[in-house]
Amino acid sequence: MQISRSLLSNSMLKTAAVLAVGALALSACTNASETGGQGAASPSGSAAASFDPTTVQKDDALAAMLPAAIKSKGTLTVGSDTSYAPAEFLGTDGQTPVGYDVDLAKAIGAALGLKVQVQTAEFTGILPALGPKYDLGISSFTINPERLAAVNMVSYFNAGTAWAVQKGNPKKVNLDDLCGRSIGVQTGTVQEDPDLSGRNKKCVDAGKQPINIVTLKTQTDITTRLVNGSIDAMAADSPIIGYALTQTNGQLEKLGEVYDSAPQGIAVAKSDTALAEVIQKTVAKLMEDGSYKKILEGWGNADGAITKSEVNPAVGS
Question: What is the C-alpha separation between 6 and 314, in angstroms, rounded?
């Protein structure tokens, strides 16, 4: 599954949280600086039952492999863009991070005998802050060559790109011809670049109207704009689109099929290969003892489960 910005961000990108709405790339024509929604509804998360990390037993052998600095600190600090439901978002109190990525972070911490602190961060700011600020980045990061050049990544999930439009597709959006359309994506995602940036280039090269790429910092704002009709369609990671459809009271529907499925990864500083190896072994342990599957099933995302976790797996461009 998947989730783009300046040149720096393209070297350090993410994949797509849609919080409930209603009840609840850049090219020359991109509205990259737009912020805030027009008539934005107040987002609220509908959380599934949280995974109980106390069900995970500490693995002393894995804990012994932790870098000394983390052992002495006793806490894993995790950076996460908590606006990407159901992967990572804020619960009904508006403060507590929840989601399957959050539950996985807690399970990893439990297996290593560490406390876990998930800190809300802007998506594009997480990868550059690994090491000095965050031990891990767990925020639906699609594994791609640009990110692998900047950080270590431990695979744990599989997702693709999906699209949504207003119910009934009143604007007759066609994925094969988006020229002149207004499309919303979260800043820094793979949907922004290379997906929409590539589609826009084809429009321009063909002498057609460019795509108006509306890129905002949070997926919630993108979803709100689609609900109120100020954009024609939105693209995000498949779990995020699926969740948005269930949380917007039938106001949206899926457009087309999921494509470009790819692994997502837990990000670790490039210089900290030892920590990346420990995290990979811990994810593998959670797969073996059933905790991993239980977490994903609790959030209705078992379809994204993988069978093998790897450090820096080979991926396509």
Answer: 25
Q: Which pairs from 93-96 meet CB under 8 Å and 24+ separation?
A: none
Measured in degrees and rounded to the nearest 5, phi and psi for residue 269 equal: -50, 140
Evaluated on CA atoms 42, 46, 182, 139, the torsion sign reads positive
Name residue 202's beta-bridge partners: none
Helix (H) or strand (E) holding 221: helix 219-228
3-class SS of residue 184: strand
Contact 5, 124 (CB under 8 A): yes
Q: In what order do the strands lie in the sheet with 233-237?
A: 115-120, 75-80, 136-142, 252-269, 151-166, 233-237, 182-186, 212-216
Q: How far apart are CA 248 and CA 13, in angstroms?
A: 27
Give the neighbor-by-neighbor strand order of the sheet with 83-84.
Answer: 83-84, 88-90, 97-98
Cβ-proximal residues to 150 (8 Å cutoff; 6+ apart), any chain: 11, 12, 127, 270
Distance of alpha carbon 22 from alpha carbon 251, whole angstroms = 9
pLDDT in tens, the chain (317 residues): 333 322 333 333 333 333 333 333 222 222 322 323 322 333 334 555 578 999 999 999 999 999 999 999 999 999 999 999 999 999 999 999 999 999 999 999 999 999 999 999 999 999 999 999 999 999 999 999 999 999 999 999 999 999 999 999 999 999 999 999 999 999 999 999 999 999 999 999 999 999 999 999 999 999 999 999 999 999 999 999 998 998 899 999 999 999 999 999 999 999 999 999 999 999 999 999 999 999 998 888 888 999 999 999 999 86
pTM for the whole thing? Answer: 0.78
DSSP secondary structure code for residue 49 in this structure: P
